[in-house]
Amino acid sequence: MQDILAALGIKASNGGASTGTQWIAAGGRELPSFSPVDGKEIAKVTLADEAAYEAVIAKAQEAFLEWRMWPSPKRGEIVRQVGEALRKYKEPLGQLVSYEMGKSLQEGYGEVQEMIDICDFAVGLSRQLHGLTMHSERPGHRMYEQWHPLGIVGIISAFNFPVAVWSWNTMLAWACGDVCVWKPSEKTPLCAVACQNIIAEVFAANNVPEGVCGLVIGEANIGEKMAHDGRVPLVSATGSTRMGKSVGAAVGARLGRSLLELGGNNAIIISKDADLDIAIVGCVFGAVGTAGQRCTTTRRLIIHEDIYDSFRDKLVAAYKQLRIGNPLDPNSHVGPLIDKGAVEQYLQAIEKCKAEGGNFLVEGGVLEGAGYESGCYVKPCVAEAQPNFSIVQHETFAPILYLMKYKTLDEAIAIQNGVPQGLSSSIMTLNLREAETFLSSAGSDCGIANVNIGTSGAEIGGAFGGEKETGGGRESGSDAWRVYMRRQTNTINYSTALPLAQGIQFNL
Ligand code: NAD
């Protein structure tokens, strides 16, 4: 790991605040980052205090005045070079993501690949920030709209995608002409330090204004400061619904803009007309991948009564094959939870489920002994439960899967939609009517609805996000760029008269 840290410019003690190429005094307490893989301390970071936050915001404000005047394709060229740098650092960065967060090595690399993909997307976008033109009702007038950058985009991110979520926001925001200030999760601070070092290389080589890429590594108080800060017109926050409600209220109170990407409670409907071989892979990967710590993790299976018993038995057999262990070992299917607090929440959820009448088909528990010294490895488990159990209505960020039975598709859709969250959903069916009903306006109420693939995994081209308590934000693909810009409608009179709209006469 020392080689990897050195390659990414990570020292034993690291700064927690930066304006781009320069680290500034962070002023807060020193925070060690422990790996959930083996429980060892990786390195330390000095947390940003309020003075550091102020310095980074001030520099970002200054940088915006210059950056907004760079032609968008020139900004795109910087993003292109960032993509190249990420290709160069894919291995060490992917390994650090895996070691600091605990996801599998393949998922660590996959996360860096997502960063590269969003760079490519944003480069193209930098030449496509299109506005519409409209026909004016007034003679000799032209009307059109254009999109301008907003200013500072504040990015608050969660531990489970410690680098990709930042890049989803930042690459689009930069192409749009915004400057960014990132408040990463305090559980994965070194991933943020590594990204900042990679960016610094590109920025120094291209004389990008200092302040375009700000970093403030802090705890929730720094995120709260950002949410209340009128100098930050857009706050993009990814994390729990609890956090999103707080950030959304604070940003809303100052009539700022927020992009919220919050918790999910994702279900797969398994029809009696499903290809069960595909379904089993989609369900198991969706439920146990990243140890159940994806916002799109499959948490509920809604299974048709005719195939319930056989599917349940196949699922239990598949769970018995799972290998839990070091995520850097390619033979492991399931790695650790992020920390002991997460393990505690997992254990509490199992107890709550039992107390509400849940029947565990695959028992959970914490693993001990050689290879499990960090205390963060848990057994993925499966319980038969009722849709209305309070624990089933709640997102537990751990590999606990709830099984439910249905008779009719309407009933299955009602169960699928009957939770406060609305992120990802899917149906396994070869029946066209069922698939189309699920995707119709009377079907899934989620931001993501899939057929014959699971709930987890997203591609950069599509807009990502969900409804209800998931927060309503969309980022990454499609036209998600618009949230990072302000729309301006322009009317130009090239006639010799001043006709007023709606035929109003105003004679002087
Ligand atoms: P979390 O809410 O505990 O923390 C997320 C971030 O918010 C951290 O940077 C944290 O410091 C900050 N924060 C916490 N309270 C805050 C407050 N009151 N004001 C401002 N900032 C605050 O979440 P987590 O445990 O890091 O991540 C897991 C959660 O994130 C899950 O609920 C998961 O579903 C969600 N998530 C959602 C998406 C999505 O795209 N919808 C993606 C990844 C994770």
Automatic annotation (TrEMBL):
Determine the domain of life of the protein's source.
Bacteria
Please provide the record's keywords in A-Z order.
Answer: NAD, Oxidoreductase
Q: Where is the Aldehyde dehydrogenase domain?
A: 23-489
Q: Does the keyword Ribosomal protein apply?
A: no
Q: Which residues form the active site?
A: E261
Q: What class of enzyme is it?
A: oxidoreductase
Enzyme nomenclature, EC number? 1.2.1.3
Q: Which InterPro entries match?
A: Ald_DH/histidinol_DH (IPR016161), Ald_DH_C (IPR016163), Ald_DH_CS_GLU (IPR029510), Ald_DH_N (IPR016162), Aldehyde_DH_dom (IPR015590), ALDH7A1-like (IPR044638)
| Gene3D superfamilies assigned | Aldehyde Dehydrogenase, Chain A, domain 1, Aldehyde Dehydrogenase, Chain A, domain 2
What binding partners and quaternary form does the record give?
Answer: Homotetramer.
By sequence similarity, the record places it as follows: Belongs to the aldehyde dehydrogenase family.
State the protein's name.
aldehyde dehydrogenase (NAD(+))
Q: Which organism is it from?
A: Flaviaesturariibacter amylovorans
